[in-house]
């Protein structure tokens, strides 16, 4: 190694050095726990039975895959994420189109529409469980009563749908914000050209506005999905995952196994599976996203 | 084929009191190439957008072939428009861009393709038909925008500064192409520009606008030779006409130490209005460089060398008013003088333009 490169190496460390605390912190709070989780997932370890801890290899993973409840919960998670993201994207698009028009008090209305996203998830979930869905004094039944539908026990009869309703309420503003940003970046002269070329409002929307919004909608869907994998508060507050595991998602089920069932080994194995699946899916989604954004940068 | 008539058409933008276009009246003949020209904020683009149906006609009316266009949506006016930034549909290929209007009209796919290919051939776009606009250069995008307009074979072409995003050389080239294409297609064309050279070279007739008001609507030579007011005189021509305020004498006007003789009817009209001073206009080519004492004595401020000829910017030396008036003269000589040198400008040929000192209106013919 020449002297020149030694010097530049020292110089390199001097430059990168200040980043080291942040790197170490990140490793300590993310990678070390993950390593521990990996280790725990190879143990048969239930806190209720002291002294039962032993190494069992990958058998925990086998148990997890055999667990029909785990499969049901995994399916719940997918339904919850996909349903929430798609419905809130459609609603967000509709609201964004309305808010993109000029009218008196538009600023106030925009702020009000965004508020569900700003409310603490737990508070929002509590609000939906009681003020909206309560069978005795909930607003939903109050509104439906005149139609003869007033005696539905929403949260216990449709637990997953109830949780989803709360999440859609929360995520629609997020989608709306992204899509509104897209709408406002739409060049007006392109729409005018379309009008002169003979297109009506619906054709303009389908042929010009929607293709322009595509990447904003995709961004919303991907970001929404990544966040929604971690949904816990809404499930915990509204249904506790019940009845049975009908409305449980993966984070909640893992929590139940670890902190209510005290089965550390199995919970760790489930956690590892969830993390791996999440990384796989979000990598694919992000790759798709980067692809569309690079393509549009060429277009700009 | 269409005749267009603006009849006292006004457009008032929301939240403003002054109209962007104020009672515009224009009669455009079938197949004519009319240029709307003016400085920014003159309402020229608004006037065009009113014709295209992109702005409301708040007062008066616009007719195409005698049909009232008030309340008629753009898509029913049979107008094609070329936008300043081209406004190509970014998600469609060149062929789809050009065929969009035909598709909207419900034309069959193969007929669409045939028409698009013919237009593409005309504009040398055949190889780009399957590309997206993002992959094209500025000049190619401009041609696609033109192609999108001509494929439709519309009654009227509207062009809103279509050349302003091109570099100087390409602009001159495209200018002649557009003019030739318009002659060939014979469609009535309304063309907006802020560039008076484009207006002069392309238009059959040119409408000069200022602050939403029509100043003059005439052929380019008429605009150049007899501008109706000082604004048109100063706007048309490059470099601009020399406009100097000068005191009136019995023979003409006093310019520097000398008297610039005027025509008899010009003098008569000055006296009729009881004016003691007037705004006189002389084009740079009406002045020639002479030795001191042979005309109006001036000191050179700047010499612009263009190769074929040069422009001499100078100010009057014997000016008793506060700010010395500046004049520009065209010289065929390569070395008309040096900076700071005193020379003289002499009037060579053509009439002096005389304008009212306050209203700016032209006095006598």
Automatic annotation (TrEMBL), chain A:
Gene3D superfamilies, sorted: MetI-like
GO CC terms, sorted: plasma membrane
Superkingdom classification of source: Bacteria
Species of provenance: Halosaccharopolyspora lacisalsi
Transmembrane portions of the chain: 20-40, 73-99, 111-128, 168-186, 216-238, 267-290
Topology in membrane: Multi-pass membrane protein
Chief site of localization: membrane
GO biological process, any: transmembrane transport
Keywords: Cell membrane, Membrane, Transmembrane, Transmembrane helix, Transport
InterPro entries listed in its UniProt record: MetI-like, MetI-like_sf
Protein name as annotated: Sorbitol/mannitol transport system permease protein
PROSITE patterns to which the protein is assigned, alphabetical: ABC_TM1
Coiled-coil features, chain-numbered ranges: none
Family in the record: Belongs to the binding-protein-dependent transport system permease family.
Pfam families tied to this protein: BPD_transp_1
Compartment list: Cell membrane
Keyword Membrane in record: yes
Record domain ABC transmembrane type-1: where: 74-285
TrEMBL record, chain B:
Domain ABC transporter: 6-236
Domain of life: Bacteria
InterPro entries noted in UniProt: AAA+_ATPase (IPR003593), ABC_transporter-like_ATP-bd (IPR003439), ABC_transporter-like_CS (IPR017871), ABC_transpr_MalK-like (IPR015855), ABC_transpr_MalK/UgpC-like (IPR047641), Mo/tungstate-bd_C_term_dom (IPR008995), NA-bd_OB-fold (IPR012340), OB_MalK-like (IPR040582)
Keyword terms, alphabetized: ATP-binding, Nucleotide-binding, Sugar transport, Transport
UniProt entry tagged with the keyword ATP-binding: yes
One GO MF term attached to the UniProt entry: ATP binding
SMART domains assigned: AAA
Single biological process term from Gene Ontology: carbohydrate transport
Keyword Signal: no
Name under which the protein is recorded: Multiple sugar transport system ATP-binding protein
């Amino acid at each position: 190694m020449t002297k020149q490169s030694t010097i530049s190496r020292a110089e390199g460390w001097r430059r990168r050095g200040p980043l080291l605390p942040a790197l170490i912190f990140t490793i300590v709070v993310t990678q070390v726990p993950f390593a521990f989780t990996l280790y725990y997932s190879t143990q048969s370890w239930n806190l209720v039975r002291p002294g039962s801890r032993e190494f069992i290899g990958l058998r925990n993973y086998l148990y997890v895959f055999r667990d029909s409840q785990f499969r049901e919960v995994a399916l719940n998670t997918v339904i919850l994420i996909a349903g929430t993201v798609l419905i809130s994207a459609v609603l967000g698009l509709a609201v964004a189109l309305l808010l993109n028009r000029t009218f008196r008090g538009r600023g106030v209305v925009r702020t009000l529409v965004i508020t569900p996203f700003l409310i603490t998830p737990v508070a929002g979930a509590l609000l939906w469980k009681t003020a909206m869905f309560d069978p005795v004094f909930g607003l939903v039944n109050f509104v439906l009563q005149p139609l003869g539908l007033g005696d539905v026990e929403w949260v216990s009869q449709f637990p997953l749908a109830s949780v989803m309703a709360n999440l859609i309420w929360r995520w629609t503003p997020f989608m709306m914000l992204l899509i509104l940003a897209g709408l406002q970046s739409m060049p007006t002269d392109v729409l005018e050209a379309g009008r002169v070329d003979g297109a009506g409002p619906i054709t303009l929307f389908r042929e010009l506005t929607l293709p322009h919004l595509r990447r904003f909608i995709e961004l919303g869907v991907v970001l929404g999905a990544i966040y929604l994998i971690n949904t816990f508060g809404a499930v915990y507050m509204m249904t506790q995952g019940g009845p049975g595991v009908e409305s449980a998602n993966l984070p909640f089920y893992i929590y139940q196994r670890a902190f209510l069932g005290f089965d550390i080994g199995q919970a760790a194995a489930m956690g590892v599976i969830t993390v791996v699946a999440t990384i796989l899916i979000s990598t694919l989604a992000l790759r798709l996203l980067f692809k569309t954004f690079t393509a549009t940068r060429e277009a700009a | 084929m269409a005749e267009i008539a603006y009849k006292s058409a006004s457009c008032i933008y929301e939240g403003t009191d002054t109209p962007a276009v104020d009672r515009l009246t224009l009669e455009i003949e079938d197949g004519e190439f009319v240029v709307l020209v003016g400085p920014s904020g003159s309402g020229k683009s608004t006037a065009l957008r009113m014709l295209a149906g992109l702005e409301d006609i708040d007062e008066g009316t616009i007719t195409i072939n005698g049909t009232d266009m008030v309340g008629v949506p753009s898509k029913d006016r049979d107008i094609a428009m070329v936008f300043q930034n081209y406004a190509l549909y970014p998600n469609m290929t060149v062929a789809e861009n050009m065929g969009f209007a035909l598709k909207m009209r419900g034309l069959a796919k193969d007929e669409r393709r045939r028409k698009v290919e013919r237009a593409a051939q005309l504009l040398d776009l055949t190889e780009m038909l399957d590309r997206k606009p993002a992959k094209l250069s500025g000049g190619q995008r401009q041609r696609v925008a033109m192609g999108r307009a001509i494929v439709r074979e519309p009654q009227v072409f509207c062009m809103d500064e279509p050349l302003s995003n091109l570099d100087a050389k390409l602009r001159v080239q495209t200018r002649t192409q557009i003019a030739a294409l318009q002659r060939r297609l014979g469609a009535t064309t309304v063309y907006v520009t802020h560039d008076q050279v484009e207006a002069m070279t392309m238009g059959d007739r040119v409408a000069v606008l200022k602050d939403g008001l029509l100043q003059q609507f005439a052929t380019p030579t008429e605009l150049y030779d007899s501008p109706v007011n000082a604004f048109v005189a100063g706007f048309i021509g490059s470099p601009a006409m020399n406009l100097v305020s000068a005191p009136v004498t019995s023979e003409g006007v006093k310019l520097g130490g000398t008297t610039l003789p005027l025509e008899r009817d010009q003098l008569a009209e000055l006296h009729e209005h009881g004016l003691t001073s007037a705004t006189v206009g002389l084009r740079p080519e009406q002045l020639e460089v002479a030795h001191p004492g042979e005309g109006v004595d001036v000191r050179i401020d700047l010499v612009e060398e263009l190769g074929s000829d040069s422009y001499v910017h100078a100010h009057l030396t014997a000016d008793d008013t506060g700010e010395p008036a500046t004049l520009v003269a065209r010289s065929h000589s390569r070395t008309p003088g040096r900076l700071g040198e005193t020379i003289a400008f002499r009037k060579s040929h053509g009439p002096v333009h005389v304008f009212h000192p306050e209203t700016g209106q032209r006095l006598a013919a």
